[in-house]
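Box 3.1 A note on notation
Throughout this textbook, protein chains are presented in two layers. The first layer is the amino acid sequence; the second is a C-alpha cell string describing backbone geometry. Keep the layers aligned when reading.
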Amino acid sequence: MLRSDRNESLPFSDSDDRDLPAPAEIYAGLSRRVIGQETAKKALAVASYTHYLGLAAGDEDHPSPFGRQTPLLIGPTGCGKTYLVHCLADLLGVPYQYVSAAELVEAGYKGTHIETVFQNLYRRCDDDLDLAQQAILFVDELDKCRSSPGLERDVSGTGAQNALLSVLDGSPIRVGPEDSGLLLDTSRILVIAGGAFVGLEDQIRRRLDGGGLGFRGPGGGAWAEAGTAELLEQVGSEDLIDYGLIPELVGRFSAIAPLQPLSEDDLVRILTTAEGSALAAHCAFAESHGIQLSLSEDALQMIARKAAAFGTGARALRSVLDRELGDLRFQLPALAEEGVRRVEITGQVLLGCEEPHVFRRRIGRSPSPHRVPRAPRLRSRALRADAAGRIRRPGRPSFTRTANRSAEWIWKRIDQVRARLDWDRTTGGAKEWWETFEKANARRPALVLRLAEELDFRKATITDFFLAAVYAGTDNIQACLHYFDYLRLKRREEELKRRRRAKEAREQREKKEKKEKDDEKEDKRPEDPPQKPVDG
C-alpha cells in the first residue's frame, strides 16, 4: 500500500495527517540546508517540538502545559538567522511570517503595528484562522528597538517592546472585520526573535572581567582576548537588559541561542553541501543546457574569500557567484550548440589568467540520458502567456486546504475529484487498488484527496497511476508520482523520436520518388533531330 515518506518534506500529507517530527529529526532536516550553527539548530528543534506538542496536549483555557516557547537568536548579519527560521517553517509545513522589529511602533503612532502583522498573516493564510494559528512568527532585528534613554516617549523602542509583550503573553488580536469579532489566539503561534546585537560582546567582556571569578578563571582581563563567538556563548539576561531591552521582555525568552560568524571554510561548505545553495542553482542552470559545471577547490576558496570580505556572511555568496560566472551563463547556449559537455572553473580562470576549461563530446556521440538539454524545449514556450503554469513542477499547484475541514467535507471533495479521474471506466485491478487505498487511509482523507488532486493536475486517470505504481516497485507515493512523470516524459520523447524518424523516412521516400520521376522524364525526352551538313 502506498504511503507518504515521513522522513522527507511530507508533500503528500496535510498538517492534520502527519506526526510531529522529534527534535532529532527537526535538527537533521535543518542540517541538510544550514551549515554549522549547531546550538541554534538544536534550540529551534526543541522549542518547536515543545510548542506544537504542547498545543496538542492543551485545551482552549490552557493552550500548553509545557510552557511558552520563545527562543532568541543572536548573531551577526548573514550568519543564517532568518534562513534557519524559514527552513524550520518549511520543514514543519506551517505558515511563516517575518517582521522587522525596527519597523514596529507603539499603538496610536504612525508605523507598523503588531496587530497589522497578524492581520497580514491571516490574509496570507486565505482567511483560514486555524492555519494562521499554526504559524511561526520571526521578529528580526530586535536589537534595533532597544530603548533610548532620555526620550520621554520612546514609541519605536520601549513602546515597540511593550507591544511585543502582549503577543508573547498570548493576547488575542482581531484579524477580521470590526463587526466579525474574529480573534486570533497568539498563544498558539510560535514566536522566534532574533538580532545582530552589535557590540553586545564588548558588554559581556566587561561584565566577565569585572565580576571576580569568570568561567575561564580569575577576572581582571581573563576575557580580554576572547573572540566574539566565545563571548556570545556567555550571554545572560543582564547583558540584554543593559543593552536596552526591557526586563519584562527578556524574561519571556525561553532560550538564548548564539550564532557564530561564518568562516571561509563554512562558506565553502555552504556552496558545496547545503541544499538549494547558490552554486547548486548555477549547476542546475548549466545542466539544463546539457553541460556539467564544476569548480576546483582553489576557485571555491577564492569565492568564499571574496564573499567573506563583504561582511554579510552567506548573503554575499550569490552576488559573488553571479558576478564571477556571469560571462559563462551568457555563453552557455552557444557552448551547448558546439557540443561542450563539461566546463571546469579554476582559480586561474577567476583571476583572468586563463579561459574556462571546456570538454566536448566526441563527434557522433550523443549526450548521456541524464544530461539531455532541457533549455531548447523551455525556450520554445518561455514567452507564452501560460508559461508559468506549464513550467511549474508537478506537486506545486494550489491544493485544497483541509486544516479546518471535516472528514465528511473532504470525502465529498474526493468524490468530485475522483469523477474527473475516469472513475466510471476504471475496472479490474486498478479499481480494486484505489478502493483498498481509500480504505487503508479512511482516517486520513486529506492524504487521499492530495493524491487525487495530484493526478487531476496531471490529467491522469487512476488506471494510468496504478500501472505506474506497479512498475515502480515501491509503496512510496512521491516515488510513484516521480516514476509516473518519468514514464510520461519517456513516452513523449519516444513519440517525438518516432515522428522524427517517420518524417525523415517520408522525406527520403519523396526525394527518391522525385528522382525516379525526373529520370523517367529524362528517358522519355525525344532525341534531337540530326543536323544537316552545312554546304561549304
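Residues 1-17, 212-219, 385-396 have pLDDT under 50 and may be disordered. The chain has three domains: 15-198+243-258, 264-389, 393-517.
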